[in-house]
Amino acid sequence: MKYAPKEEINARIEKLKVLMERASLDGAFFHYKIDYYYLTGTMQDCLLFVPLDGEPLLFVKREISRARRESPLVNLISYRSIKDIPQHVKPMKRIGMQLDVIPYNDVLRFKGIMGNVELVDCSPLTKEIRKHKSPFEIGLMEKAAEIGKKVYATIPELLREGVAEIEVGGQMEAYAKSLGHEGLLRVRSLNYEAYTWHILSGRTGSIVSQSDSPMGGLGLSPAFPVGASFKKIRKNEPILVDFGICYHGYQVDQTRMYAIGSMPEIFVKAYDVCKEIHDRVLDKVTEGYTSKELFEYSKELGDKFGYGDHYLGYKPHKVRFLGHGIGIELAELPFIAATHTYPIEEGAVFAIEPKMVFPGKGSCGYENTVHYTNGKCRIITDIDDSIIIV
Amino acid sequence: MKYAPKEEINARIEKLKVLMERASLDGAFFHYKIDYYYLTGTMQDCLLFVPLDGEPLLFVKREISRARRESPLVNLISYRSIKDIPQHVKPMKRIGMQLDVIPYNDVLRFKGIMGNVELVDCSPLTKEIRKHKSPFEIGLMEKAAEIGKKVYATIPELLREGVAEIEVGGQMEAYAKSLGHEGLLRVRSLNYEAYTWHILSGRTGSIVSQSDSPMGGLGLSPAFPVGASFKKIRKNEPILVDFGICYHGYQVDQTRMYAIGSMPEIFVKAYDVCKEIHDRVLDKVTEGYTSKELFEYSKELGDKFGYGDHYLGYKPHKVRFLGHGIGIELAELPFIAATHTYPIEEGAVFAIEPKMVFPGKGSCGYENTVHYTNGKCRIITDIDDSIIIV
Asked: Closest residue of B to A44, CA-based?
């Protein structure tokens, strides 16, 4: 197991404090584990307090000896209830709390215990600093990509006529886990659960579902109506494999296309267009286009190549994003989307996924996880990008 | 795919309305998908409104044609933003909302849109009615158990000296998925993620982690510090397999013990005691003991048989529950726990899991999912209950 080095954690906390000062916060609490993992290195059952002045306090419910091993923070306090918290912190006026994710009742209870304080949502602060990946983080993402590469290399062995999508997904996942994939992908959402087994073949590739994706897939039941299904994979249909990997909490996302026998011509052409859009948009990232400009430019390309009715889904189910930042959450800053106006900054890691959907027939797409560094877009998920025919 | 019948959904809504009237609610909103799946039959991206008087309205963001197929409700309305909601509902004074799970910011935003209303947490209402499982629900849980039985039957083939715990977990999961297991287990928690791959061998069975479990396991990294790990399974050590299955959203939970070569004597004896406690506690369920009494009784038995230091964990990591209701959430009413005072009611389904932990050596346990019906405890997860030696 790799633990986050002390310098890494210290640097993150220092960046946070700069933003806290700017937001006039006296301190900030982190109840949600995604962010306290980022700021501490541990996902034990904890509650992190970062004062504007002074050392962070990590309150640990369970299990403190593991938290000590995993986190380089020095002030760890064993606690049983949030009622124990106030005695350890100085009186404050404005405190940060993750109001975008913590349930309403829990916020009220915490506020009741903390007394007369003003609560401010501090999630934008961690989202902001998480945008820029450190070399340590990039190392973990490269390891995730290495696992992904090995897993994708087994797909040709798994594909045979009559195999169900879910069988392929399950076998990929089993192998990925044996290499260190943690099984879960994580998203900051009450209702959306990310999953790795997004294997769609032929018409299931054109089925839309609850997820904000051009193609949701059929899934296994009304209780899990997305991703791989019991549909049997047939010859000569497009097979889209969009399989995320998670290593030490860090995710990479990628999509490649497969077929048994042959790939129908419309998907061969559409896939080429997806790759073309992918490449051209990355050029524009380098040129400093904003998120919105990148998205609009990609749509123009889709139209220009004659794929306006298929690009990023069909009407009325088109999605309004082409890419999403990725790290300890599957979708984080920066996005490449219709409503985001910032440029892509140095150190960002994002997944870019041009996809085309043909109603009733299926879909195709191409996706990579990309690191924008030194003014260049470097593809982390460097898997063979040709259509694989088995 | 099985869809919830109209009578089933109508009966659930009627039960809800009785509790709503008792709570003086004019209407209730369900944003969290676990409960609106229960009340509608669909997990598409929706928002359910149940007025005290009149028909439920299901607002569907994505994808309405699937929601129509999956849900027998008749009033489905396509919507884009919660701003669209007020025009469809009459003015109300007291409305229910799932304040235990919906993020603080989202509640405030919704309240702003709904105007001058009093918000009341309505999650206790659905938790209450979900306690009693219908024949339709039991059918789905029996199907989940059937999948579990097949999956457990493959364990002897998967166990060999030197195989990593996570390899066994991954293979079990791949097979389970090919039979309809949905991959995810669901819990009502911000920070705890349920998972199926809880395969612990030898000393990893005595490692405690963030989870509220006598044994958490080592896991794969600080970002997923629970469950199966890269530890290689050896001869003559206890192998605990606690693997949940989810079918159409309904879960079953079960634990059995395995060993390669032979099982050390202390675990053979402790396992017998676990089974004895399991059986005797179920007798007391039938006799009408309350949750707390059942829990205390089981502790007395643990002490009496000489396992006070091991039963449900070792100090200070002992857990304070022996069982948990199970259904569309892995942990729901009724619990068998130190702080719960109700008796187990007709129609309940719960998992009961006496477990013993021996620091540094490992653990053992026995667990079944049980249906309490017609005054009897019927074991749904009817897998061979002997220690399996391979």
From this structure: B210
Which residues of chain B have a pLDDT value below 70?
Answer: none
Mutate to test the interface with A, among B64, B79, B177, B330 (most CBs of A within 10 A): B177
Asked whether the beta carbons of B245 and B330 are under 8 A apart, the reply is no
φ/ψ of residue A238, rounded to 5: -70, 135
**What CA–CA distance (Å, rounded) separates B59 from B87?**
12
The confidence score (pLDDT) of residue A204 equals 98
User: Cis omega before residue B63 (within 30°)?
Assistant: yes
pLDDT (0 to 100) of residue B13: 98
Give the nearest partner residue to A225 out of B66, B169, B174, using CB atoms.
Answer: B66
B335 contact partners, CB below 8 Å, separation of at least 6:
B291, B321, B323, B324, B325, B350
Per residue in A265-308, pLDDT (tens digit) is 999 999 999 999 999 999 999 999 999 999 999 999 999 999 99
Domains observed in chain A: 6-130 (3.40.350.10), 135-389 (3.90.230.10)
Mean pLDDT over each residue of chain A, to the nearest integer:
97
Nearest-angstrom CA–CA distance, A274 and A284: 15
All residues of chain A having their beta carbon less than 8 Å from the beta carbon of residue B221 are 1-2, 180, 182, 247-249
Check A195 against B184: CB less than 8 A apart: yes
Distances in Å between the Cα of A155 and the Cα atoms of A354, B171, B211 are 21, 16, 34
Provide, as residue numbers in chain A, all residues whose Cβ is less than 8 Å from the Cβ of B190.
31-32, 101-103, 106
Complete DSSP assignment for A267-313 = HHHHHHHHHHHHHHHHHHHHTT-BHHHHHHHHHHHHHHTT-TTTBTS
Contact yes or no for A32 and B222 at CB 8 A:
no
Q: How far is B249 from chain A (nearest CA, A)?
A: 5
- Cα–Cα distance for residue pair B144/B152, rounded to 1 Å: 12
Asked if A208 lies within 8 A of B62 by C-beta distance, the reply is yes
CB–CB contact A177 B193 (8 Å): no
Per-residue pLDDT averaged across A182-201, rounded?
A: 95
Phi, psi for residue A101 in degrees, rounded to 5? -125, -25
pLDDT tens digits for range B209-257:
999 999 999 999 999 999 999 999 999 999 999 999 999 999 999 999 9
The CA distance from B252 to B111, in Å, is 37
Look at A45 and B191 and tell me if their CB atoms are within 8 Å. yes
Per the CB < 8 Å rule, is A37 touching B247?
A: no
Which residue is closest to B196 within chain A, CA to CA?
A: A183
Structure tokens at B267: 């675990």
